[in-house]
Amino acid sequence: MTADAGLSRSNAVSAADVNDLMTRHIDRAFGPDAVAELRVRFEQEHIVPLRGLCPPEMFEQIKDEACDIIDRHGTTHDLTFEITDNTPRNMTTVGQPIIKDEGPLIDAFYFAPVLLDFVGKVVGEQVHTCPYAGEHYVISRLGRSGDTHGWHWDDYTYGIILVLEAPHYTQGGFVQAVPNTSWDKQNPDVYGALISSQVRSYALEPGDAYVVKTNTTMHRVHPIRGDGRRTIVNMTLASTADLQAELTHETNDTLFGGVRDTRVGK
Ligand SMILES: O=C(O)CCC(=O)C(=O)O
Ligand SMILES: [Fe+2]
Question: What residue ranges define each of the domains in the chain, with the CATH number in brackets?
Answer without folding.
Answer: 14-256 (2.60.120.620)
